[in-house]
Design brief:
The chain has 13 helices and 13 strands. By secondary structure, it is α/β, with parallel strands linked by helices.
């Protein structure tokens, strides 16, 4: 199979860079991977996917690894799209699904991005990587680096969930706790690049993690038989999942695989997008906790770039990203889709998490629980119709958040009789 990648493109100003060498950023902003979509259209059709393995790699024509690259994989299967009738009733809607990313190899959607990033890093001869993490990205990086035979350095806030701390160490990563937030960890990674000789694998500071996350959108389109849902609620920290899915939908629309009235396009470099909605495309809802809500705040204030969110705190560690390098990409996607960005009360996260777990038996993480609260609010405000088709992404397994699961259980003496 030939490679369909044509070049890399700076998201901030459209500058084109070669894709056949290791690249990071342009003007301190992220890069897009671009494809020859005419060639992809000629090479593959939706029906061709039916006989391919049910993995995240099934649509290789829209993924960056060249034919000679060896995939760094732990068996990333296609995650299930689970109907949730009882939770739907509780939220006041009729058609609700959860796409359960907790079933990926490292227990979260981070498996997708790290499998792709580590595949490309190994292909380009990288021997040492480093990244800051709020939790699950560090664990995924540690295991995929071990799989690739690449040395990993992980820096995480000292109050990162204990499971994430342990899994990074277990997988052989050099794991360091930092007295601060993820942006403080990012500063350490940035300052150590020259001295330590590591490649910065931070969110959106290389172009391939987003291509891994893009596979969520490719899968979702196929699972909905190429007719997308009306609404997607996505918990947003660094935002690569939301950005990647919107990119996937745009590429599929350009291929003619989606019944959309028009193909969504990126705004001109330096310009905000025209607000949606685009017929046939989902409204993208970016959800944060009010304990850390830079994207929701920027959206409410009509800004394209978000400011550092002061005193960031939330039980949902994946949402505790006080400043995101891809802020404008998240906000562009939300606005282009006709969606919104909002913050829900931090104090309600664990209630929504427990409610959803008990109603549907899905190991819903606190980040995804924020989406349950957002759905209830948007339905009450009349911004989501009860008959619309809605998808919430469960980005990780609740079992990785033992602190959030903690509860005092009743005890009985050994000789107790019922």
């Amino acid at each position: 199979m030939p490679s369909f990648v044509t070049h890399l493109e700076a998201a901030i100003d459209g500058t084109q860079l070669p894709a056949n060498q290791l690249q990071a950023m342009h003007r301190d902003r992220p890069l897009w991977v671009r494809y020859d979509l005419d060639a992809v259209r000629a090479a593959v059709r939706p029906d061709d996917l039916r006989d391919r393995p049910a993995t995240m790699w099934r649509l290789r024509e829209l993924l960056p690894p060249p034919p000679e690259a060896t995939l760094v994989t732990l068996g990333e299967g296609r995650t299930p799209l689970l109907p949730c009738p009882r939770l739907a009733e509780r939220c006041g809607v009729r058609n609700l699904w959860i796409k359960d990313e907790s079933q990926l190899p490292t227990g979260s959607f981070k498996s997708r991005g790290m499998a792709m990033a580590m595949t490309m890093a190994k292909h380009f001869g990288v021997r040492r990587v480093a990244l800051p993490t709020a939790g699950n990205a560090g664990g995924a990086a540690a295991f995929y680096a071990a799989r690739a035979g690449i040395e990993a350095h992980v820096f995480m806030p000292q109050d990162t969930p204990i499971v994430n701390q342990y899994e990074c160490h277990l997988a052989g990563a050099h794991t360091t706790l930092v007295d601060g937030l993820i942006n403080d960890c990012g500063r350490i990674v940035r300052e150590g690049r020259e001295k330590m000789g590591w490649f910065d694998l931070s969110t959106l500071k290389e172009p391939y993690r987003i291509e891994g996350k893009k596979t969520m959108g490719l899968e979702l389109a196929e699972q909905f038989d190429w007719r997308l849902p009306d609404v997607i609620l996505y918990p947003t920290g660094g935002g690569t999942g939301l950005i990647g899915m919107w990119k996937a939908f745009a590429e599929l629309a350009a291929l003619g695989w989606l019944p959309v009235a028009e193909t969504p396009v990126a705004p001109a470099p330096g310009e905000p997008p025209v607000a949606g909605p685009v017929p046939g495309m989902p409204r993208m809802i970016s959800v944060q906790s009010d304990g850390c809500a830079p994207i929701a705040t920027a959206f409410a204030e009509g800004r394209r770039f978000a400011e550092l969110f002061a005193n960031a705190h939330t039980t949902a560690s994946g949402l505790r990203v006080p400043v995101a390098v891809g802020d404008f990409m998240i906000l562009d996607a939300v606005r282009a889709s006709g969606g919104c960005a909002l913050a829900v009360p931090e104090t309600k996260l664990l209630d929504w998490m427990r409610e959803a777990c008990a109603l549907e038996g899905i190991a819903l993480c606190p980040e995804a629980a924020a989406c349950v609260g957002a759905l209830q609010r948007l339905v009450a405000e009349g911004k989501i119709h009860p008959d619309e088709r809605i998808v919430i992404f469960n980005t990780g397994a609740v079992q990785k958040y033992v602190e959030a699961m903690a509860v005092e259980l009743p005890r009985v003496p050994r000789n107790h009789r019922v």
